[in-house]
Amino acid sequence: MKTNNHLSLRRLAMATSMVASLGMLSACFDGDDDDPVALPTPTPTPPPTETTFNVEPCLNQMIPGTGVTVAQAVVPDTLTLDLSAASGFPNGRKLPDPVIDVTLAVIFLDLSVNGPGTLAGLPLNPPANDVAFRDTFPYLAGPQGSPPVADNSGTMFTFRSDPVSSYVRVDRMGMPAVSTALIPSDRKNAYNDAGPAADANGDFVPDLAATLTGLTNALADDLTGAGLTPCAVPE
Amino acid sequence: MKYSKAIPFALGGLSLATAAVLFAPGVGIIAADHLDPPARTDPAVDSTPDRAADIADVYAWHTDTSVIVAMTFAGPQATDQPATYDPDVLYSINVSNSSPRTTTDIPIRFRFGTGAMDQFGVSVTGLPGVTGAIRGSVETELEKDGVRVWAGLFDDPFFFDLQGFRDTLNTGTLSFDSERDFFAGQNLTAVVIEIPRDRIDPGAPVDVWAATARFGGQL
């Protein structure tokens, strides 16, 4: 159904560029918690949809080409590499992978209708880094600008040798955007203190599901309006 | 499966208003993992943010001959700022290559050390097939027993319309702009490690996750 897909993508592209101009209204945000939420004044705020969604079909759908469901990809929160298959998110994560667009696609869209690459194909977010990566080690691009760079001629250094037990956890990360986007604020510290065993035990599944439900309730109308098929079903 | 049991419990009565409450305190800055958790790493939320221990991203990929893991942290930052080599932070890249997936079989850990004047070193332990640690200066390629390490200041490799994401959460309307990359023109500190693939490949899935910890407790 090539024609339909192209139509859908165009409609979503138009929709997102329209709302992008609304986004400029809030360009003065400085990120503080007390920032007012800038709403577009000329257009009345659309009333919250009455529809609530069941996201279980989203969590239980298979990600094509991976052999795992969305829930299994996110829980436990690790990057998983199948070394026998081609590398690239969600099979591991390479530097140029459009991880946010792929993540948004697999958590919001019916993958049997709109594949994991649907949003990256638009693209929804910037499709690539602003500078080129290196083909050889260390792969990342060198620093931009003219920052002070440490003298690399030293050979004698003093390191801490304290046991791991002398350190207190600050942060953890596996999959991009899981902790930041799908874990509620009041659970973030607990999430970052935990690990894959707690994930696999289901400790944070209610949090993930609740956040995804909230996001879906807010965004499903946009997705449908753009010609896309949400994986969530109205309750 | 435990999570399929837990899911229905979470689904009752959530509305858009609930969603806004859920997101409001956390929407200041949301990215791959930059400035998360906010209560420990985001200066907008925490008066003593731990920049050095703030993971920005974790990457792990393979080629025919290698597995490459990279952790980026302490960013993004302006391009006139130096790298962050904090000797009090313990960085871990945890690799599980045997069942269960949730236990760490290969605990790769690195710390920074101080040298003379403007010199900093990196020490990486737990590397498969490497005797002892790989130790040496930052900002250069270190190699021992077939494993390569580079610690230094780099371009922030992440790309994403952070403003659009924030607006999407605030307004409940998809608000992304593919021309707007919050991370463009910014740097951060990173450690990249390349390991011969046969030292990790078990013929089964490999799991990778990262963590940071601070000596003596959080800031």
Order of helices and strands of chain B: HHHEEEEEEEEHEE
Number of domains of chain A: 1
Kindly state the percentage of residues in helix of chain A.
Answer: 25-40%
In percent, how helical is the residue content of chain B? 10-25%
Catalogue the unreliable spans of chain B.
1-29
Biggest sheet of chain A, strands in spatial order? 1-4
Shape of chain B: globular
Keywords (chain B): Signal
InterPro entries (chain B): DUF4331 (IPR025566)
Protein name (chain B): DUF4331 domain-containing protein
Pfam families (chain B): DUF4331
Describe the fold and architecture.
The complex is a heterodimer of chains A (235) and B (219). By secondary structure, chain A is mainly alpha-helical. Chain A has one domain. In chain A, 34% of the residues lie in helices and 6% in strands. Chain A has eight helices and four strands, in the order αβααβαβααααβ. Chain A has helices at residues 2-23, 56-60, 70-74, 99-108, 178-182, 188-193, 196-200, 205-225, and strands at residues 53-54, 79-81, 167-173, 233-234. In chain A, strands 1-4 form a two-stranded antiparallel ribbon. The longest helix of chain A is centred in the first third of the chain and has 22 residues, at 2-23. With 219 residues, chain B is mainly beta. Chain B has one domain. In chain B, 14% of the residues lie in helices and 36% in strands. In chain B, strands 1-2-9-8-7 form a five-stranded antiparallel beta sheet, with no helix packed on it. A five-stranded antiparallel beta sheet of chain B has the order 6-5-4-3-10, with no helix packed on it. The two termini of chain B are 38 Å apart. At the A-B interface, helix 1, helix 2, strand 2, strand 3 and helix 5 of A face helix 1, helix 2, helix 3, strand 1 and strand 2 of B.
